[in-house]
Amino acid sequence: MTDEARLPSGAVEDTDNPGWYTWGDFPRGSFAAATGRMLFRPEGPGRARTRIFPDETMLNLGGSIHGGAVMSFIDMSLFSGGRCAGMEAGHYVTLDCSVHFVGRGRAGIPLDAEVRLVRQTRGGHVFFIGTCEQDGEPTHTFTGTLKRVKTPTRPA
Asked: Of 37, 52, 64, 105, which is least surrounded by CB within 10 A?
């Protein structure tokens, strides 16, 4: 499968970051917009990398990236990174996501997630493992499962 075939629908090359892709800016006021700019790229069969650029608006009272911001980034990484890693095209929902906080996330340093596709079943379940890092140091580890659904739900 070519890199282009593994990209999520609507992905475009990021002009500021060669080799990376993006969806552009998320709709203003949307929950996804709180993550800021998100990039992604295939990194070989079964692997992908996603990236955000945390700033001071994402910090908790202790000065680290808020756990909710990290978990949102990881959840979004399962979708964009999953597709880049070879997940079949389709509409998916998150069944579970487990995050371990193994280091402190800091503002001003790109936060990357390495997403590895473990297995996709014929029934539409997709299993992932991954690690987030800043400056080559692990900050979070995660597992996640997505389920392919036939009919996407639409907002009321």
From this structure: 37
Q: How far is the CA of 119 from the CAs of 27, 104, 124, 136, in angstroms?
A: 32, 30, 10, 26
Would 155 be classed as within a structural domain?
A: no
Q: What is the pLDDT of residue 3?
A: 61
State how far the Cα of 103 lies from the Cα of 29, in Å rounded to an integer. 30
pLDDT in tens, 34-49: 888 899 999 999 999 9
pLDDT digits (tens, 9 = 90+) for 58-75: 999 999 999 999 999 999
Cβ atoms of residues 112 and 134 within 8 Å: yes
Residue 124: which CATH number? 3.10.129.10
Question: What phi and psi values does residue 64 have, to the nearest 5 degrees?
Answer: -105, 160
The boundaries of the domain holding residue 141 are 12-148
- Tally the domains of the chain: 1
CA torsion angle for 137, 113, 100, 144 (degrees, to 10)? -160
> Cβ–Cβ contacts within 10 Å for residue 103, how many?
14
Per DSSP, helices labelled H in 17-135 are 67-84
Q: Rg of the chain over CA atoms, in angstroms?
A: 15
